[in-house]
Amino acid sequence: MEARLESIGTHADLQALMSDIGTRARAAAYVLALAEPTQKAAALHAAATAVGEDCTAILQANSEDLAGLRKELATPAFIDRLKLDRDRVASMADAIETIAGVPDPVGQVIASWDRPNGLRIERVRTPLGVIAVVYESRPNVTADAGALALKAGNAVILRGGSEGFRSARAIHAAIIRGLTKEGLPPDAIQLVPTRDRAAVSLLLSGLNGMVDVVVPRGGKSLVGRVQAEARVPVFAHLDGVCHVYVHAPADLEMAKKIVLNAKMRRTGVCGAAETLLIDKKLAVSHLKPLVEMLIDAGCEVRGDEVVKKSDPRVVIATANDWATEYLDAIISVGVVDGLDAAISHIGRYGSHHTDSIVTDDKKSAEIFLKKVDSAIVLHNASTQFADGGEFGFGGEIGIATGRLHARGPVGAEQLTSFKYRIRGSGQIRPG
Question: pLDDT (tens digit, 9 = 90+) per residue, 102-114?
Answer without folding.
Answer: 999 999 999 999 9
